């Protein structure tokens, strides 16, 4: 992983957890979902991936655990965060007490067919082996199980993407899903969902400011800011768009309901 990606996914989570410890636990969820999806997107995913009481939800590349913690609190799920960066795993345990395991998407440390639901948010666009990741997600899902994806898709990329990113086109994404034998149930652009509540945005900004005040002169913070600024430009100019997809692994119960 590049130095820029290390700054964003290993160093930054530790700083965020420290800031949340000072600001209060109400800041944990918004801060830990930054760069992923907000409350409206999480509800959309939970509804369409059948996240429910006591069901095992495996969040692959789950970062600081914000989405997994939301699913536990709001839907009673039993989440497991699988994340390659130790700093992010540490933050997920510290802020939410979530079970975590250090592991990558090319060999998810979960048994075949164990997960009632699988989430993979913002990860597919950081690997060149998209088919390999999708096949792993399919392997750990129960037959007929649902998977939720958040993918940044290429809609006419002209500028240089942030380090470590490989955005698929809509065609490439559809082809990879078909080859992995995963069927799309529903999809939506994140921009078409309701914006996060003002209080959510406020707590995110306050956490960012707390991190900046303590670490703003450090090289890792500057690298992360460069990454985020580059991605923001791509989103603002429509070169890249955030897309949510609910897919399922066909099986003996795959035709029950929507």
UniProtKB/TrEMBL annotation:
InterPro entries membership: Methyltransf_11 (IPR013216), SAM-dependent_MTases_sf (IPR029063)
Record's keyword terms, sorted: Methyltransferase, Transferase
GO molecular function, one term: methyltransferase activity
Top-rank taxon: Bacteria
Residues in Methyltransferase type domain copies: 58-147
GO BP: methylation
Pfam families referenced in this protein's UniProt entry, alphabetically: Methyltransf_11
Protein's name according to its UniProt entry: Methyltransferase domain-containing protein
Annotated organism of origin: Pseudonocardia benzenivorans
Classification of source organism: Bacteria, Bacillati, Actinomycetota, Actinomycetes, Pseudonocardiales
């Amino acid at each position: 992983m590049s130095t820029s990606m290390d700054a964003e996914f290993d160093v930054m989570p530790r700083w965020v957890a420290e800031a949340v410890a000072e600001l209060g636990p109400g800041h944990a969820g918004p801060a830990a979902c930054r760069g992923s999806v907000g409350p409206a997107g999480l509800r959309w995913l939970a509804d369409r991936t059948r996240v429910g009481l006591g069901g095992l939800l495996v969040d692959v590349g789950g970062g600081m655990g914000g989405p997994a913690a939301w699913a536990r609190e709001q839907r009673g799920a039993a989440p497991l965060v699988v994340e390659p960066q130790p700093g992010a795993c540490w933050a997920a345990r510290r802020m939410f007490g979530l079970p975590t395991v250090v592991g990558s998407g090319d060999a998810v440390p979960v048994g075949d067919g164990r997960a009632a639901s699988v989430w993979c948010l913002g990860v597919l666009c950081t690997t060149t082996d998209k088919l390999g990741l999708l096949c792993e997600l399919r392997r750990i899902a129960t037959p007929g199980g649902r998977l939720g994806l958040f993918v940044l898709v290429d809609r006419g990329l002209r500028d240089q993407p942030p380090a470590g990113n490989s955005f698929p086109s809509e065609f490439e994404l559809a082809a990879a899903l078909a080859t992995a034998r995963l069927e799309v149930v529903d999809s939506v652009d994140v921009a078409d969902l309701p914006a996060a509540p003002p209080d959510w945005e406020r707590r995110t900004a306050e956490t960012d400011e707390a991190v900046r005040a303590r670490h703003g002169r450090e090289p890792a913070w500057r690298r992360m800011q460069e990454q985020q600024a580059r991605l923001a430009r791509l989103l603002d100019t429509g070169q890249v768009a955030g897309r949510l997809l609910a897919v399922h692994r066909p099986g003996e119960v795959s035709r029950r309901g929507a």
